[in-house]
Design a protein that fits this description.
Blueprint (H helix, E strand, L loop, with lengths): L1 H15 L9 E5 L3 E4 L15 E4 L4 E2 L10 H10 L5 E5 L2 H8 L21 E2 L7 H10 L5 E4 L3 E6 L2 H22 L9 H15 L8
Parallel strand pairs: 6-7
Antiparallel strand pairs: 1-2, 1-5, 2-3, 3-4, 5-8, 7-8
Helix pairs in contact: 1-5, 2-4, 3-5
Length: about 220
C-alpha cells in the first residue's frame, strides 16, 4: 500500500510544518476508482497504513482499521471527481491562510511563487457549511483555472499532480498568506502587474510546478 504510506508521510509533514494540528486538516490521493484519504481526527504522528481509508467516487468506503474517513471527505472526492488534471489534495488549517480566510480576502500576486497555484491570485471561496455539497461547489468555483484557494472562515486547499506537489503548494500558500498579512501592516500592498504575471505563471509552472514533473 505504497500510496497509503505516501499519504501518511504527507500528513505528518503537514502537521510538522504547522499547517495542521491535532489531526485536523486532511490529505487525499486519486486511485483507479476513487481515492485514499486520511481518517477522522487522529494524531498523524501515530497513523498507520491500515488506518488510511479507501473511498469510491460513489461515496462508499472501506477501511481495514477502526477509523472512519475524514469528515471532509466529500470536499476531496468532489474535487478529484471534477478535476481530472490533478491527483492529490491537501487541506490545511494553517494560521496565516486562515487569518485571510476569516476576512474573506484573496491572496494577490505579492510574490512570483503565486504562479504555482496557476494564476495571479489565490481566491477565497465563499463560506459554506463544513462537509456540505455547497462547500465543494464554492471551492470548485474558487479553484477555476487554479490549483489552490482559501476557504472562508476555514483554511486552504492545495491541489497537485502528486502528493509532494500538493504539499509544496500548501506550504507556499501559507508563506504567501504570511507575506500578505505582514505587507499589509506596512500600508498598501503593490502586487505584480497582471501583464507581468502572464510571463511569470508559465515560467514558475515550468520550473517549479506541473511542468517540472518527471514521474508520479
Amino acid at each position: 500500500m505504497r500510496l497509503g504510506t505516501e499519504i501518511i508521510a504527507t500528513a505528518q509533514a503537514l502537521e510538522g510544518s504547522g499547517l495542521a494540528y491535532g489531526g485536523f486538516g486532511s490529505v487525499s490521493a486519486r486511485t483507479a476508482t476513487g481515492m485514499l484519504i486520511t481518517p477522522a481526527v487522529t494524531s498523524y504522528s501515530r497513523l498507520g497504513p491500515d488506518e488510511i481509508v479507501a473511498m469510491d467516487f460513489d461515496g462508499s468506503w472501506f477501511a481495514t482499521g477502526e477509523l472512519r474517513p475524514n469528515p471532509e471527505w466529500r470536499l476531496h472526492l468532489d474535487i478529484l471527481g471534477a478535476r481530472p488534471d490533478i491527483d492529490a489534495v491537501v487541506h490545511s488549517h494553517s494560521t496565516f491562510a486562515s487569518v485571510l480566510a476569516a476576512h474573506g480576502r484573496e491572496i494577490s500576486a505579492v510574490h512570483h511563487s503565486i504562479g504555482l497555484a496557476g494564476g495571479d491570485s489565490i481566491r477565497c471561496a465563499r463560506y459554506a457549511t463544513v462537509g456540505s455539497p455547497e462547500l465543494s461547489a464554492q471551492a470548485l468555483a474558487a479553484l477555476h483555472q487554479r490549483r489552490g484557494c482559501l476557504l472562508r472562515n476555514h483554511g486552504a486547499l492545495a491541489l497537485g499532480f502528486s502528493l509532494g506537489n500538493a504539499l509544496v503548494l500548501a506550504r507556499q500558500i501559507e508563506e504567501l498568506a504570511k507575506i500578505s498579512v505582514f505587507a499589509a501592516s506596512l500600508g498598501e500592498v503593490q502586487p505584480i502587474d497582471a501583464s507581468e504575471m502572464d510571463n511569470v505563471v508559465p515560467f514558475v509552472e515550468c520550473h517549479y510546478g506541473a511542468g517540472a514533473k518527471v514521474s508520479r
